[in-house]
Amino acid sequence: MHKILCLLCVVYLLRVSANKTTFEKNGITFETDEDGDYNLLTHEILVLQPGSIADIQDVYRLYLMEQKITGIEPGTFQNLPSLKKLIIIMNKVQKITTGIFNALTNLTLLNLSSNLISHIDSSAFDNLTSLESLTLSNNRLTSVDSQWFELTPSLNWISIRDNQLTELPAHVFGNIKSPKPFTLVLDDNKIAKIDKDAFRGLTSISMLSLDSNKLKTATGDFLEGLDIDVLLLRDNGIKCIDQEYFGAVFVANKTDISENPWTPQCLTAIQTWAEQFNKTVEHEFA
Ligand SMILES: *[C@@H]1O[C@H](CO)[C@@H](O)[C@H](O)[C@H]1NC(C)=O
Ligand SMILES: *[C@@H]1O[C@H](CO)[C@@H](O)[C@H](O)[C@H]1NC(C)=O
Ligand SMILES: *[C@@H]1O[C@H](CO)[C@@H](O)[C@H](O)[C@H]1NC(C)=O
Ligand SMILES: *[C@@H]1O[C@H](CO)[C@@H](O)[C@H](O)[C@H]1NC(C)=O
Ligand SMILES: *[C@@H]1O[C@H](CO)[C@@H](O)[C@H](O)[C@H]1NC(C)=O
Ligand SMILES: *[C@@H]1O[C@H](CO)[C@@H](O)[C@H](O)[C@H]1NC(C)=O
Predict the structure, then answer these.
(1) Beta bridge partner(s), residue 85
(2) Residues contacting 2, CB < 8 A, separation 6+
(3) Which ligand is nearest to the CA of 134?
(4) Is the pTM of this model over 0.85?
(5) Whose CA is closest to atom 10 on ligand 4?
(6) What letter would DSSP give residue 145?
(7) Which atom of ligand 2 is nearest to the CA of 103?
C-alpha cells in the first residue's frame, strides 16, 4: 500500500515540476523552471570563462552539478541580479581565486562541496555581504584562512567537513562577525590540536561539530567565553578528561561524547558530575 502511494507521489512530483524548459546563452545550455532554478546541462565545459554566465535576469538558484568543471575564471558570473543560491558541486575545481564571486553581493548560499579544492585566495569571499551559508565540504583543504570571513558579515553557517585540516590555530574563526548564533561543522578532518584562541571573537554558537577528528583530550580552553547550544565530540580519540576540566569542557547545553575510547572510570566520573551539575552529556555506545 505504501509503495503504491509513494509511486503515485513520485508521478505527482514529476507532473508538478514538469514545466522545465531549456535555455541557451553564450553556447551554454541550462534547464530552467518558473522558480528561477537553472541547471547546467552542457557537459563539455572544462574552465568557465569570464562573462560566460551573464545577463540572466531571473536566475535565483544556479546549479552547476556533476560536470567536469576544472576551473572558474574571475568574472565568470556577471549581471545575475536575482541570484541568491549558487551550487557548484561534484566537479573538479581545484582552486578558488579572488574575483570569481566577489560581485555577487546578493548571494545568500554558496555550496562548493565535492570538488578538489586545495587553495582558496584570502579575498575570495570578500564583499559577499549577504552570504549566510558557505559549504566547503569534501574538498582537499589543509588549512583555514581567517581572512576568508573578514568581509562576510551575514555568515552564520559554515561547513568544512571532510577535508584535511589537522589543527585550528589562534583566531582562525575570529573574523566572523555574525550577530546570529553560528553553526560550524568541522567533522571528518584530522584535527588533533585546537588553539585556545581558535574561536576567540565568536560569542554564540548553535552547533560546534567536531565529530570524527583526532582529538585525544580536552581542557576546554578553546570553549572559554562561548555560549554553545550543541557541542559534538563523537568519534575522536578521547580516553579521559581530567576532572578539574569537566566544568570547562561541558559548557554547552548539550554535549555528545559517544564513540570515544573512554576508560570506564572516566565515563562514570563524567556522568556523576553531569548529574550533579545538571548538564546534558550524552554517550551512546556505537
Ligand atoms: C505549467 O505551465 C502551465 C501553462 O503555462 C501553467 O498553467 C501551469 O500552472 C504550470 N505548472 C506549474 C507547476 O507551474
Ligand atoms: C541585488 O538585488 C537587487 C534587487 O533585489 C538588484 O537590483 C541588484 O542589482 C542586485 N545586485 C547585484 C550585484 O546583483
Ligand atoms: C570589496 O569592496 C571594496 C569596496 O567597494 C573594493 O575596494 C574591493 O576591491 C572589493 N574586493 C573585492 C575582492 O572585490
Ligand atoms: C551542498 O552540497 C552537498 C552535495 O555535495 C549536499 O550534501 C549539501 O547538503 C549541500 N549543502 C547546502 C547547504 O546546500
Ligand atoms: C542554552 O539553553 C538555554 C535554555 O534553554 C537557552 O536560553 C540558550 O539560548 C541556549 N544557548 C544557546 C547558545 O542556544
Ligand atoms: C536541570 O535543568 C532542567 C532543564 O534544563 C531544569 O528543568 C531543572 O529544573 C534543572 N534542575 C536543577 C536541579 O537545577
Answers:
(1) 61, 109
(2) none
(3) 4
(4) yes
(5) 111
(6) -
(7) 13
In a domain, 143, yes or no: yes
Q: Is the CB of 169 under 6 A from ligand 2?
A: no
Sign of CA dihedral 169, 98, 105, 132: negative
Distance of CA 13 to the CA centre of its chain: 29
Task: Report which ligand 4 atom has the smallest distance to the Cα of 111.
Answer: 1
CATH number for the domain that contains residue 256: 3.80.10.10
Gap from CA of 176 to ligand 2 centroid (Å): 24
Give the atom of ligand 3 at the shortest distance from the alpha carbon of 151: 1
Q: Domain count of the chain?
A: 1
Q: Any bridge partners for residue 78, and if so which?
A: 54
Question: Quick one: 216 exposed, middle or buried, by C-beta within 10 A (0-12, 13-18, 19+)?
Answer: middle
Q: Which amino acid is at 229?
A: D
Residue 14 has a pLDDT of 44
Asked whether residue 18 is domain-assigned, the answer is no
pLDDT in tens, 138-153: 999 999 999 999 999 9
Is the residue at 1 inside a domain? no
CA of 104 to the centre of ligand 2 (A): 9
Q: Which atom of ligand 2 is nearest to the CA of 104?
A: 13
Residue nearest to atom 5 of ligand 5 (CA): 253
